[in-house]
């Protein structure tokens, strides 16, 4: 192993820790946005995802995501590397990844992505679902939706291959040089669009809270929300910077672009909020951070700091406007997963085709930029279709077998006390409020 590859090892280990840290940070972010009587349940949904998805990823998730034996280009053979056999090697004879460092590091890094992708969905289901059903859902959704999507987008599978082939004959320009592969630097397609689409379908499948549109559902702890957003921002450096798979200039660019987009996302959200509601709120600032981060995720390695500011600013505005969709169409996306992750994820995926250095349509990309724009739209739409159909099927099966909703009395009294046997604020005598 050469000196350059040795230098990459600590960066990837740090990035793995940062991305893993994002799931507890998400628990804090979602927990603060929840009602006081269900904050622990909301946080437990993130921690539950951490438990279930880690287990299934080690057993068959890696094999389905990055296995060499592709099944119809949709997923890898789950038995090829089941339990990580023939995957990580030993200390004396490590199996190396294509990035030049031991594959065991890459497995750990990709595992953390699988966990956070599933945990994001939980924000659409606050106050009303059975914890056991949620745990089963995390295992099924990861297996039938996330792992295949990773294989199709990042593992050389169906979506990546077909999108590139599509671009090869666009506008009568055939040949390899004319082919344009889709771009998803760190997970705008595989994570945010898929999680946002799943959140939308589950919110519809599970149904609305009994008090939705009748009672205001305000965050019970805004300092939690702001702290959670700050910790997500911190973890996102591993999310985007680590996706360079090296301690390199590209990692530096991705981390700088991440900061720029998040900061601009704050300003975009606050501007939209001020013009619409007359107030620039702390919840808006925290949500704007996440919207900016989601927007830059697919584009962190192909934009520059200035275009990242543009992407994040517009992402903040669009996400702020997107959260109103649930009121217009009356689906109960409790903590705005659709508005933030789906809307900003789509914008980042498509926006990079406009703003990417040298290849973006607005950055001198010409025919290549136009092809890239079409490819990005097609892949985003295909991801939504695949995720939506599979999520609806999984949701329907679980409804029939286990049921999604807690009893109305439990929803009213609070899931924390009835399901988990504890409350967040016992010492203050505030149970049930």
Quick tags:
single chain; 433 residues; mainly alpha; Ammonium transporter fold; 15 helices
Write structural notes for this entry.
- The structure is a single chain.
- This protein has 433 residues and is an all-alpha fold.
- It has a single domain (3-420), classed as Ammonium transporter AmtB like domains (Ammonium transporter fold, Orthogonal Bundle), CATH 1.10.3430.10.
- The protein has helices at residues 3-33, 39-66, 103-121, 131-153, 158-168, 188-206, 222-241, 249-277, 282-296, 305-322, 325-329, 337-355, 366-401, 408-413, 415-420, and strands at residues 70-71, 75-76.
- A two-stranded antiparallel ribbon has the order 1-2.
- α1 (3-33) packs parallel to α3 and α6 packs antiparallel against α12 (337-355).
- The protein is globular and about 60 Å long.
- The protein starts with a helix and ends in a 13-residue tail after the last helix.
- The model has no long low-confidence stretch (mean pLDDT 93).
3D shape = globular
How many structural domains?
1
Estimated helix fraction: 55-70%
Enumerate the spans where pLDDT stays under 50 for 5 or more consecutive residues.
none
Q: Summarize model confidence as the mean pLDDT.
A: 93
Q: What gap, in angstroms, lies between the N and C termini? A: 59 Å
In the CATH hierarchy, what is the architecture at level 2?
Answer: Orthogonal Bundle
Return the CATH topology.
Ammonium transporter fold
Which structural class is indicated by helix and strand composition? mainly alpha
Rg is 21 Å
Main sheet: strand order: 1-2
CATH superfamily, by name, is Ammonium transporter AmtB like domains
Can you summarize the main beta sheet?
2 strands, antiparallel
Total strands: 2
Q: Please, how many helices?
A: 15
CATH domain class: Mainly Alpha
Family: Belongs to the ammonia transporter channel (TC 1.A.11.2) family.
Membrane topology: Multi-pass membrane protein
Protein name: Ammonium transporter
InterPro entries: Ammonium/urea_transptr, Ammonium_transpt, NH4_transpt_AmtB-like_dom, RhesusRHD
